[in-house]
Amino acid sequence: MQKIGFIGIGIMGKPMVKNLIDAGYPAVTYDVNKEALEEIISYGAKRAFSCKEVASQCDIIITMLPNSPDVKKVVLGKEGVIEGVKRGQILIDMSSIAPLVSQEVAKELEKKGVEMLDAPVSGGQEKAQSGTLAIMVGGKEEVYNQCKPILEVMGKPVLVGSIGAGQTTKLVNQVIVAINIAAVAEGLLLGKKAGVDPQRIFEAIKGGLAGSQCLTDKAPRMFEGNYDPGFRIKLHVKDLNNALETSRGLHTAMPLCAQVMEMMQTLMADGQSEIDHGGLALFYEKLNSISLKKD
Q: pLDDT truncated to tens, each residue of the chain (295 aa)?
């Protein structure tokens, strides 16, 4: 089996690489977080001491990093992936970053004879653990077909276009998710304020047109007041910022996205940057002086 290099052992990356190991893929891993790296080494991965070393030992390199600057540093920087690659290798960047950065990185790798896919994911920690992430892939079809069995270990990949198309699709996903979570919180708060049990409202509407994965996943967390991060507010702010920057370049009006961005910025200013994005409910709770948490 192809040897996989995996850089970025965070909330999402850790279960993703564990699934690859469970599927029998040899894995070489690196992360600046030594504790996370030790855990994955004890699970069966091999340790590398730099991104360059990962690239020099593997057939396919996967990166799962927080933002565009991180990807550029890890891939193109000193001791980065690009210093260790050889012709014929493939980089799969599964981070959520700006589409233009994906295209920039791909062009630099192409000079070394290295192909790239941008393959951001959606589904949070739970779906990363179960190997059922939605994976939005940009790149050449033949490269996608070569990597598809690996991607299928981690989720359900769909090729959506050329390099950068995966990231654009992820931005669309993040806009819809953010607005959906806000709508769930706003609607349920209305019901609570009117004296109707929001849990009963949830049970009544989840099978109808208002039903969604966001409603199913986030409403129960709101009732428990459980905002342990599956996907942190600060990372969703990063994605919405990329979406709004892209929209400005395309002269596309996105008033709902901009409004939810302001809600998330308010939570960030309140010291809530590390909570789950379902914590948008806290914005509405503070605004209305009422809690969705079960009494």
A: 899 999 999 999 999 999 999 999 999 999 999 999 999 999 999 999 999 999 999 999 999 999 999 999 999 999 999 999 999 999 999 999 999 999 999 999 999 999 999 999 998 888 999 999 999 999 999 999 999 999 999 999 999 999 999 999 999 999 999 999 999 999 999 999 999 999 999 999 999 999 999 999 999 999 999 999 888 999 999 999 999 999 999 999 999 999 999 999 999 999 999 999 999 999 999 999 999 998 7
What domains sit in the chain, N to C, each tagged with a CATH number?
Answer: 4-163 (3.40.50.720), 168-288 (1.10.1040.10)
User: In 10 A of CB 113, how many CB atoms?
Assistant: 11
Question: What tokens were used for 157?
Answer: 């990949």
Q: Token pair for residue 291?
A: 């809690």
For residue 170, indicate whether it is catalytic.
yes
Q: Which two tokens stand for residue 266?
A: 């308010």
Q: Which of 18, 52, 127, 170 is catalytic?
A: 170
Could you say which DSSP state residue 79 is in? Answer: T
Q: Distance between CA 62 and CA 116 in Å, rounded?
A: 10
Q: State the Cα–Cα distance between residues 268 and 284, nearest whole angstrom.
A: 14
Task: Give Cα separations from 147 to 31, 43, 80, 152, 268 (angstroms).
Answer: 23, 23, 22, 9, 37
**Distances 10 to 82, 94, 112, 208 between C-alpha atoms, Å:** 22, 12, 28, 35
